[in-house]
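Table S4 entry, Heme oxygenase (Staphylobilin-producing).
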Amino acid sequence: MMIVFTNTLKIRKGHVHKLLERMDEGTEELAKAEGFLGTRILRTRQMADEEEVVIQTLWRSEKYLKQWTKSEAFRRSHRGDRPDWILGFKLNSYEVIHWLPPAVDKESTSDSLAE
């Protein structure tokens, strides 16, 4: 059963770019992790004093998520103290109970997300 793991972070306004830079350091190893199916990073659109970022990772099963969190690559990507611009976080794990992949369309491109 597929699993979505989320990390919801409260970030000091104007510092989301620092989170993305920090995440770029471990992206290659995460992409190669066995059972990893993808990631999505979301940012709330209307918050006054802080920003909320939700990092979603999709895994083939909980077994692969646990393998990743016990790996040396995971430890390297999460080393060091939490920066002061991360105001808080909440972790959650969800079972995927329904999945509807997009229909294949000749005119669809990956650029369509930028619209």
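The longest strand covers residues 3-12.
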